[in-house]
Amino acid sequence: MKDIQKRELIRSVKLIQSLGCSFRIISPDGDSFGDLQVIEPKFKKPRGPRKYQYGALTKQAKDNLDLNADVGIVQEVFCGSFDLETLRSAVCNLLTKAWGKDTYVTVNRGDRIEVMRTSGAE
Questions:
Q1: How far is 95 from 67, CA to CA, in rounded Å?
Q2: SS3 66
Q3: Of the candidates 57, 58, 61, which has an alpha carbon nearest to the alpha carbon of residue 115?
Q4: Which residues does 102 contact at the CB level (< 8 Å), separation at least 6?
Q5: Would you state the pLDDT for residue 121?
Q6: What's the Cα-to-Cα distance from 30 to each of 1, 26, 110, rounded to whole Å?
Q7: What is the SS3 string spanning 9-44?
Q8: Exposure of 68 by Cβ count < 10 A (0-12 exposed, 13-18 middle, 19+ buried)?
């Protein structure tokens, strides 16, 4: 920082302190002013490569389900090359959006997921 910049920064810090504000200023030189603690931001870990192509699980679910099915109708979603629990998660997500929460039941049966609607739209 140039001398004039430091001088104005110190003047600004004194003004902020006189107002009774809590603050923390870190200059480009690394000088720190104020009494607040700085907490380093938590960064999310980068995702690894996807196991399945984006949208593939939802497509598999949609291709095997009739979202207009009546109460009591049992439908089957075949897993194909998908992991059973991962596909069931996608099926439940799709059904909750389409039918609502607590309106269906699912059961894993080997290579397929059985779905039955238990109540109509609320």
A1: 8
A2: coil
A3: 61
A4: 118, 119
A5: 59
A6: 10, 6, 61
A7: HHHHHHHHHHCCCCCEEECCCCCEEECCCCCCCCCC
A8: exposed
User: pTM for the full model?
Assistant: 0.60
Q: Structure tokens of 122?
A: 């609320």
Per the structure block, which two tokens stand in for 29?
């030189």
Locate 49 and state its tokens: 């490569």
pLDDT at 26 over 80: yes
In this structure, what are the phi and psi dihedrals at residue 98, rounded to the nearest 5 degrees?
-80, -45
* pLDDT at position 57 over 60: yes
The order of strands in the sheet holding 74-78 is: 74-78, 112-117, 104-109
